[in-house]
Amino acid sequence: MALIFFLLGLAVFALFFFLTSAINVDRAGREG
Amino acid sequence: MDINILIFVLMTVGGAALLSWPLGAFMKAVMDPAKPGAATGLLQSIGGPLTRANQDWKQYVFAMLAFNVISFTATYAILALQHVLPFNPDGKEALEGSLIFHTAVSFMTNTNLQHYSGEAALSYGSQLGALMWQQFVSAATGIAALVALARGLAGRPMGNFLVDLQRAVFFVLLPAALIVATLLVLGGTPMTMEGAATVLTLENVEQTIARGPVAAFVAIKQLGTNGGGWFGPNSTQPFENPTFWTNVVQTISIIIIPMMCVWLFGRIVGRLKHASIVFTVMLVLMGVRIAGAVYFELAPTQAFAELPITQDVGNLEGKELRFGTAAGPLWSVLTTSTSNGSVNAMHDSLNPLTGMMPMIGMWLNEDFGGVGVGFINMFIYIIIAVFLAGMMVGRTPEYLGWRIETREVKLAAGAMLWHAFAILFPTALFAMTAWGAGALNNTGPHGFSEILYEFSSSSANNGSGFEGLGDNTVAWNVATGLVMMLSRFIPIILPLAIVGSLMQKRRAAQSVGSLGVEDSTFGIMLLVTIVIVGALTFFPAAALGPIAEHFLYMR
Are the CB atoms for B82 and B66 separated by under 8 Å? Predict the structure, then answer.
């Protein structure tokens, strides 16, 4: 069971890496 | 109000506020020096390219996440294998899987929500090697994130995460922890690696008394806005907080570094007047809650209303009388203002509206907030306030010369809404299912408050417990563990993305058309924004919990 919960923690970290990659602020300067 | 209460509040909060000014200058000097020192050079010679390059916002976030993955893994392994690892004089066994997950996440995220009792469940190796390690590096992570954010807003490169982490640990947290731990030892807090003591009591029965290197643990517990106690009862336990004076030292330790962080930010961006306005707003918000908590706690507990007991010194249920009557409510507000989460009184026993004050602190989570991250949360409110003010008066919304546009406001709103969602949705889910109802020791509004408090504490990365919950179950461990993780990193990633977005733009010079952020008008606008957003978001939940309980039971 401990291994399953450890993998759950790693999965959430994977989500953070994905979220950070997905945020694109490069075009911000041309908005508005 | 008793004059002693006023003196106590002024001595602790006022003393910390005064100390924060020179210490904030010191913090700027060590966290953001004009020239890298010898320690940075040593780290860079060991760390190579990982520690040499300036990072953009994504690289900085990736480095922070990668470090936390490694740190989480190491903590997890120590907790899972403590029964075969050294420094286990009392032979503690391995923890259950979901509790390992919860504990590792809790300390990695600077929350320190504890679903175990330290003296009963953990070895010295686990407490020191896993949890105390996290108490240092999780606090340092928050400081590093703030320094990166401030550098970006100052129009400079964000810096390097590992360098900032090292500076925060070695030049801020370790020296401060050494001083506080020494004071605690002088005050009677134990500091030993010997196992539990077995003594013969006056009744001629054997008693086992837990002890350990408590002073070292408690020092960083308070300074790093961690809050996780060596003992289960936290700072109510006489070894963890023996006297009135250790209580004063700990009270100041709780708020000093979050206060220093405001001046750190002001000095890095070169706008100390702006920092003083933000500091004042934070102090006002915290002061109102302290006044509310102390006032509402002057009413006697209704649990004893039918008993022939004279109650003329306020609610004494769940208080440690060696600290005095005001120390409990004051501490409850300070620790929940700063995401600290330690307790020196039973929050479950606070009068209903007193109990709401810590909850408000965790809902707003920005005055003064956790080490580093408290100001980052305030930055979110500042973005929203600047945007609203700009829209209202027809001026270009800008902050420190950076134009605030759609993308920045979307990211800020995302961070703000996440915190509300992470509290309210799981509270509703657990209130309507056996996961929550089955764990309660109270029914009605107080039971609802217990669930609401637990998720507020998790999402604010606070870690204090209302208690009364049987929360060491798989459902609670997993749910609060996920909330802690998501609510730790989303409100760091999105603000750094905002700064990354601003840095893509050309910084405008201050003009008559710029919205001022260094005057009282801005301060009032910021204050009103925080109060309105907070009230609109959380008032319905407060009405179902502490407010309903007040009108039902307080006579």
Answer: no
- CB within 8 Å of B490: residues ≥ 6 apart: A19, B414, B415, B418
Taking each helix axis from N to C end, the angle separating B57-80 and A2-22, rounded to the nearest 10 degrees, works out to: 180
Q: What is the pTM of this model?
A: 0.95
Q: Residue B401 has which token pair?
A: 């010369």
Dihedral, B30, B33, B38, B43 alpha carbons, nearest 10: 80
* B 470-489 → A contacts, CB under 8 A: 478, 481-482, 485-486, 489
Q: Which residue has the tokens 């764990």?
A: B439
Q: How far apart are CA B17 and CA B21, in angstroms?
A: 7
Number of Cβ atoms within 10 Å of the Cβ of A12: 16
The pair of structure tokens assigned to B96 is 């259950």
% of chain B at pLDDT higher than 90: 77
Run of H or E residues at B491: helix B474-502
Reported as type and span, the H/E element at residue B527 is helix B520-542
**CA gap B231, B243 in Å, rounded:** 16
pLDDT in tens, B62-119: 999 999 999 999 999 999 999 999 999 999 999 999 999 999 999 999 999 999 998 8
Q: How far is CA B49 from the centre of its chain?
A: 33
Q: How high does pLDDT run on average in chain B?
A: 93
* Placement of tokens 């408690």 in the chain: B218
Alpha helices in B303-397 (DSSP H): 327-337, 352-364, 373-393
Between the alpha carbon of residue B115 and those of residues B16, B100, B465, the distances in Å are 31, 10, 9
Asked if A24 has any chain B CB less than 8 Å from its own CB, the reply is no
Q: What is the H or E stretch that residue B402 is in? A: strand B402-403
Q: In angstroms, how far is the first alpha carbon of chain B from the final one?
A: 20
**Of residues B506 and B428, more confidently modeled:** B428
A7–B contact, CB cutoff 8 A: no
With CA atoms as reference, report the closest residue to B100 among B74, B67, B124.
B74
Q: How many residues does chain B have?
A: 555
pLDDT score recorded for residue B100: 97
> Distance between alpha carbon B133 and the CA centroid of its chain, in Å?
17
Write out chain B residues lying below 8 Å of A26, CB-based.
504
Both tokens of B357, joined, read 């004050």
Whole-angstrom distance, CA of residue B117 vs CA of residue B24: 35
Map B417-430 to HEC letters: HHHHHHHHHHHHHH
CA distance B379 to B327: 30
ipTM entry:
0.92
Judge whether B84 is closer than 8 Å to chain A, CB to CB: no
Contact in structure between B185 and B156 (CB atoms under 8 Å): no
Helix (H, G, I), strand (E, B) or coil at B514: coil
Residue B306 CA, chain-centre distance (Å), reads 38
B94 to chain A: which residues are within 8 Å by CB? 2
Structure-token match 């049987």, residue found: B470
Q: What is the DSSP secondary-structure string of B65-81? A: HHHHHHHHHHHHHHHHT
- With 0-12 / 13-18 / 19 or more C-beta atoms within 10 angstroms meaning exposed / middle / buried, residue B442 is middle
CB B230 within 8 A of CB B238: no
Tokens of B217: 């643990």
- State both tokens at B281: 């707003």
